Structure prediction request, 203 residues.
Amino acid sequence: MIHTLVKKTRPFALILIALLVLLTGLTGCGSNTVKTQSNASVTPSDSGSANNSSSGNTSSTGSSSATSVKVTLYFPAPDASGLVPVERTVTVANDEIIKAMFSELSNPPSGLEPALPKGTELLSATVKDGIATINLSKQFKSNFSGGATGEQLILYSIVDTLTTLSNVKSVQFLLDGAQTVTILKEFDTSSPLKRNESLIRKL
Prediction:
């Protein structure tokens, strides 16, 4: 009798054990699902911060982009009668307006003379207390072949051009880093030169 009862109850025990195992397995899967969702929620936050960093770099790069500026340049007349004003629009990068002006002074319009001797390079330029200090390469002197009038016109082509800038009142010339009494031949350049309106031809 007892043996028969055990035989009848064994399938129920097996079913009960199987149900317990199944329930335990489902509980474990549920906890894994929660963990996966929790980890996934971190990823968008991280990628978002990376995108913000990238956009920050883009904006800082954009701040150094070039701008167009209208300037007045002065070129010597071919008959050495004075300086002729010429308006141009130049491209200025990183606020280097003086560098942009110098590039144009080597390229006169038809009928006018270059304001710089051939091969002249602007080595550096700074502005402090209204004085623009410009450091020119040796070619500025070695390739100059004019007389006293030509010397004056070339110097004031530069001075009158740079003093159109609101923060420049005078120009100090340096030759290859050195301050000299005469940067070309005769004209005194030991101290800063101020604008000379008398040399400008009225159009």
In short: Residues 2-62 form one domain. The radius of gyration is 40 Å. Strands lie at 67-76, 83-92, 122-128, 131-136, 170-175, 193-194. The first strand starts at residue 67 and ends at 76.
